[in-house]
Amino acid sequence: MKMEGVAASPNFLGESKAGYVLNNVAEVVERILTFVPTKNLLRIASVCRLWRNCARRVLRTQQRLTWLSASGSSIYEEHVLLRTMAEDLEKIYLLPQTALLMVDGENFSWPFSYRHKKARKCEDEVESDPVEKLRCLLPSTCDVVGIVASGIVVTPSGLPSSPPEEHEDGEAGFSLLFPAMDGVTIRPFHFCKKSLSESAMEEAGLINNSYLKVVLMFDYETWKAGGGRFLKKLLEPLSQNNVLIVGGQVERAFSNNTTCCSLGSFGAVGLTFSGSKIQGASVLVDQDVSSPQAAEATIQRLKAANIPERNTMGFMFACVGRGHNSYNNQCNVEASAFRKIFSNIPLLGFFGNGEIGCDRIVKENYTLSETDADGLQHSFTTVMSLVHFG
């Protein structure tokens, strides 16, 4: 029985026994709809009231995050992740409420200058601007936070146990998709020196939020004059609380807030995760770690958090100076060590120009270690972390 498409035949629904069941037995309809990808599920919801109500209930059960990833040279005049998302978003089983995207800068030509945009027709602009195309691929209600970094760490789509890959060069990217999850609040933020204020930080859940557990933060251009003070203002209140904060410095960033800052100015984007179900842990792979055995021993410390593997994501934020440079030209050392220890947790991340994080476990009222804002900022290190969403 095929339920894809906009509607089934009225005669079929009205005259057959199967049609009677599909028109009247919600338990059967709901069970069938659990096997239908979300895009088709939304189309099916327009058939009748029963199907709409069943579709809504199915959507509420889809609370496990997922990710789409891509790597390798694209045969098209666009980044390889764009083509993958255009095809694979048709197959996912959740309605994205928030999307975290990371890509390398190769073949990701953005941003356009204002003059360049004015010279294009609207259709051509959307087709050529990768950020606009990403937004068009996702639901209009989805909050988007995106970054461009020097290198990308991905796990192949949909296969948590697949070996994660460190792409220090070449095209690679991923889109981490979050549905609405009971007991979990996700808020995006995008600050520059013009928009950073206590009220804006409170709205993002960064301060005066007793339920805050994890912050992913990515700063850009903060090496410029005033950037250090800006970043310290963001990190200082977080370093004093029982909160896991991880991330790093990236080349560029984008979000739904396109008017935040002017081209070339410094700022930060990220996500806050609040709720009693969330658990987080991170370890710092120090710059002196230079053997696979030492890397594995460091990452092994994450086991102390006893974080469940189900609905958990691993994040790796490494310095561009690490990778094969730290391990006698051996590639994929740290990602492989992570997979050896956590066999069913996907790993995503990037190679950037600075790292944010420390050795920390956030679980109930227990904290592995504490530090100040300066102690959260590093270079030539790797921050490896786990975030569990219940």
Automatic annotation (TrEMBL):
FIST C-domain domain: which residues? 227-359
Q: Which GO terms describe its biological process?
A: positive regulation of proteasomal ubiquitin-dependent protein catabolic process; protein polyubiquitination; regulation of skeletal muscle fiber development
Pfam families, alphabetized: F-box, FIST_C
What CDD domains does the database record attribute to this sequence?
F-box_FBXO22
Q: Which residues form a coiled coil?
A: none
**Protein name per UniProt:** F-box only protein 22-like
Supply the source organism's classification. Eukaryota, Metazoa, Chordata, Craniata, Vertebrata
